[in-house]
Specification:
Blueprint (H helix, E strand, L loop, with lengths): L7 E6 L11 H11 L5 E6 L11 E4 L4 H12 L3 H7 L3 E5 L1 H5 L3 E3 L5 E3 L6 E5 L6 E8 L8 E6 L2 E5 L7 E5 L9 E2 L1 E3 L2 E4 L5 H4 L1 H12 L8 H14 L7 H8 L7
Parallel strand pairs: 1-2, 1-3, 3-4, 4-14
Antiparallel strand pairs: 5-6, 7-10, 8-9, 8-11, 11-12, 13-14
Helix pairs in contact: 1-6
Length: 260
């Protein structure tokens, strides 16, 4: 178990703007998984119109409608608190609209292309076809050591990864990034972006622990049997379940750390 002289600070960014799909629950999942291991944690909700602290350890951004997304992006550009935090070693989980905002460019409701925060090498454009809505199943990139992931997507943007970004995984069911290469999400250092709602960390506790270990180091495994039942139920519902030996990723959890 890692030793820290201060509480782990989990910051949920603008839940009043980027909380349309309950993604604020991701911050709660991270906090609980630390508490269950006996680690001190401070869960902070940074509402819009107030400064986002740059001293956090983990930041969570969720989905939101176009106007809310643009407002969040404009506020986060002032002072660049997320950029400062990432430079200081913080981890970030960004979902849907939050994912797009972290990139170089994203589309707005009026058809304009807006500048993002430039923290990850992605570009998002407005999709011209049917809106991707429904269950999303992903086989993670092998280097992450994760089992198959499950979530729910609902987005109008299509995202293309640049050379400095790696996909979170490959789409087994659903659309994901929709850029034509079958990828879903992006990983750059300790930044994790995805289109999976759910909240994604409630459905995929292994991903939650990967984010946590990137910040606090090795962690003891937890009994996630109930969460595993939910994950498998969703995978079987979609019909793409590839049963992954849980012991494979729990063993990796206690022996590896993600570096930025």
């Amino acid at each position: 178990m890692p030793e820290r002289d201060s509480a782990v600070r989990v910051v949920v960014v603008h839940p009043d703007l980027l909380g349309t799909y309950g993604d604020g629950g991701n911050g709660l999942i991270l906090a609980r998984r630390l508490q269950w291991r006996g680690l001190a944690v401070e869960l902070i909700e940074a509402m819009s119109g107030t400064p986002v602290p740059a001293s956090g350890d983990i930041y969570c951004l969720g989905g939101g409608e176009d106007a809310a997304q643009h407002r969040a992006a404009a506020e986060l550009a002032e002072g660049n608190p997320l950029g400062q935090a990432v430079d200081n070693g913080a981890a970030v989980l960004a979902v849907c609209a939050g994912f797009q905002v972290l990139g170089r460019r994203y589309p707005s409701a009026d058809g304009q292309v807006r500048d993002g925060l430039g923290l990850i090498d992605i570009d998002t454009r407005k999709g011209g076809g049917r809106r991707p809505v429904g269950e999303l199943v992903v086989t993670p990139s092998p280097a992450l050591g994760l089992p198959q992931l499950t979530g729910y997507e609902n987005h109008g943007g299509l995202t293309t990864l640049g050379p400095d970004a790696q996909p979170l995984g490959r789409v087994d069911a659903g659309v994901g990034n929709g850029g034509g290469d079958g990828s879903e999400g992006a990983v750059v250092g300790r930044i994790f972006g995805t289109y999976m709602h759910g909240p994604v960390l409630a459905r995929n506790p292994a991903l939650a622990d990967l984010i946590l270990t990137s910040v606090v180091g090795e962690l003891e495994a937890l009994d996630d049997s109930e969460a595993e039942l939910l994950r498998r139920e969703r995978l079987e519902k979609v019909g793409t379940s590839r049963v992954t030996d849980r012991s494979r990723w729990t063993a990796r959890l206690t022996s590896r750390r993600v570096s930025g």
